[in-house]
From TrEMBL:
GO molecular function: NAD binding; oxidoreductase activity, acting on the CH-CH group of donors, NAD or NADP as acceptor; oxidoreductase activity, acting on the CH-OH group of donors, NAD or NADP as acceptor
Name of this protein: Vi polysaccharide biosynthesis protein TviB
InterPro entries for the chain: NAD(P)-bd_dom_sf, UDP-Glc/GDP-Man, UDP-Glc/GDP-Man_DH_N, UDP_ManNAc/GlcNAc_DH
Similarity-based family: Belongs to the UDP-glucose/GDP-mannose dehydrogenase family.
SUPFAM superfamilies (UniProt xref): NAD(P)-binding Rossmann-fold domains (SSF51735)
Pfam family, one: UDPG_MGDP_dh_N
Organism per entry: Aggregatibacter aphrophilus
BP GO terms, sorted: polysaccharide biosynthetic process
Amino acid sequence: MTVPTPIDDVNRPDLTPLQKASNTVGQVLKKGDIVVYESTVYPGATEEVCVPILEEVSGLKFNQDFFAGYSPERINPGDKVNTLTTIKKIISGSTPEIADIVDAVYASIITAGTHQSFQH
């Protein structure tokens, strides 16, 4: 899931687009799904803001029925040299096993490689 993460007039992140997207995804979330967030947000935002929305809307339990991955967007739109496939991606998952799955997906298309980070 990649949506804009603008800042407000006092430089705080406006998570409204991310919250709305999480609500939409939560409506179709199924057991076993992995939701990967690419929007650039502060540490903890995925589990503190997005996951509760997914749980509430879907009725599913996080890390039991569905999982989350995270890979912050690192490309600059319009940059023709440093593209999605040529910039090393940082990958994380809500469990070590999910981190491995998310890493494998990105590693299959990112020629610059990936760096897996798991901290829980």
